[in-house]
Fold:
Amino acid sequence: MSAAFTQTAFHSFVHNFIKRSFSNSNILYATKKMKQKKGFNTQDKHKGRHQKFNLKKTSEFGNEFLYGRSVCNLAILSSRRPIFKMFLNSKYEVQEPDDPRVQSSLKEAARRNIPIEFISAADMFDISSGHPHQGVCLEVGQLLPKPLCQDTMNQLLHHGPQCPLWVLLYDIIDPMNIGNILRTCHFLGVEVPIMTSQCAPISPTTSKASSGAVEVMQLYSTNRPTQF
Structure:
């Protein structure tokens, strides 16, 4: 028996086995039985928590919620966007945080009279939209890139380094990709990161993906990338 025939027969067997064992009807039936058995209702899950925080998230001037110790620490230290409130896991109300990033954030929040609220882990999960928050969130205003006009370009060229490094992010719509690129830009010392107007806006997801680099870099935007 040839090796090619054996390989073909094996692939055919695996395909037919998977098709029989994991057909859509079997999966749907098994899922339905599991939900009936456990009384599972995805619409009611965490319903109370969502109702509690959705009003705040959608009504207070379009504020955003940053999450994660490094991101929040860099945001509060750089002061590049408005910060309205700091949220901490309620365990820190009775247990002093041992992470220097949290300690630094608390110290800066106290110095700037930023309100601090201790909330449950379930509520932290809600305002961070289920992302890993490490017990720290910030309610902040939106971070907008600075429009790159001709005067700004001339100033950057004349007062910057002799061989400046500029990077253009052209119509990137994935916030994770934008964050990863900006993190690399910060590491490599890029002076002028520029985003086209069709790029995804800077968001908490972008900030987290950049490891907080977004919070300390001056970002620029342009709607005419071919003219510079």
